[in-house]
Amino acid sequence: MEIDPTSLQGHNKEDIISVFIEHVVKTEEEVEEKETRGGKTTDLKLYLLDNQGFEFGTIETTVEHLATSDDTDRNTKNWIADHVVDEQSIDDDLSFLQISTPDAGRTDDFLVIRSNGYFWILTTERKEWCRKTVEKLIQYLPGVERLYLSSDDLEDIVEGLQDAYVSGFTAKYHAPYRKRDATLVFHGAEENDLDKAEEAFDATPSRIEWDQTNSPAAAIQGANTNDGHLSVENVREGSEAKAVNTILGLTEDYQERDRANYEVEHKPTRTIFDDGSQAIDGHTAIELTDPDRDDAPNLAAELQEDVLSGLQYNAGMWGDDTFFVQDKEHEEVFEIALEPPNIILYARENTTALSLRSFCQEILDEFDSTYSLEKKQNMLVGQ
After folding, report:
1. Contacts (Cβ under 8 Å, ≥6 apart) of 364
2. Strand-pair partners of 179
3. Tell me: the pLDDT tens digits for 187-236?
4. What sections of 40-192 are H helices per DSSP?
């Protein structure tokens, strides 16, 4: 899709999404002729990003800075050397982004929207090129991160879609103490297939395909992943307005749930009084609980070896059940308290959603997918 940035100036999000929807509209005959989902299709893709301090409209200048900074790692510099990033401002909340790959002789087009503190990136470029271009770029931008939902939240969002049903999914199971991994991929799923996968294999979804009807035939085919990626593959002629409303509703659901799970609304602040006593105001904790294990006598050692030993973290222990963790990628600090088999994250003064989300994603995707997630917070901890 070639984007004409001048034609989008002054338009709202609904109008812009409508323009992208037009590129996946199909006639009834075209929909019926298509036998399978997926493949090399030009789906509408939308990436949802949290923003914790990145200045909108500065992608190009940030990439230039990263290219020359001594603090930039080699992988980032190699990617920048192989690509050309150009950003053109359209208006205060909209910019046109192009990522060129000279060795491949191609340029990919993206639209960046600022929306209520979040960034949206829209495109119809093919999946294999998005992985090489925009998904890499997102990883390298400071203060920006893709949203991440638990499997429960992902299911709830799709179940809340009006007139929709699950038509396929990818579900995963990973728990190191069992030494068993499972990845189930279903296309053409029937009712309750996802429930059966969870019951039989303890596998929880990381991607859900859905079909949405519109009086009465299936009119919209899309998919959601738990790492902030929405896609729409087909929209039957006459259902464009419903497709726009569906996308807007999904983005709002993602943002609300991500904010509820990770946003540090009550940062802990310490006050020291003249008599030496102190008070801490503010408390935010994320509890990872109820995994599929009876106990975890070696939980501290498991976390140290499988999660905290990577390049992203510096970690030290206090006693037998508390880690102090420095997230070097996000330049933040948080605490981990162990109540085996549960893992409790506590925000510190400079902690944001970036480091908390990143750690929870590491646990649920790579360490043990059977944990459940819940945030707890209040204004006053006490003296």
Report:
1. 150, 151, 288, 371, 373
2. none
3. 888 778 888 888 888 889 999 999 999 877 789 999 999 999 999 999 99
4. 59-68, 74-82, 127-132, 134-140, 151-159
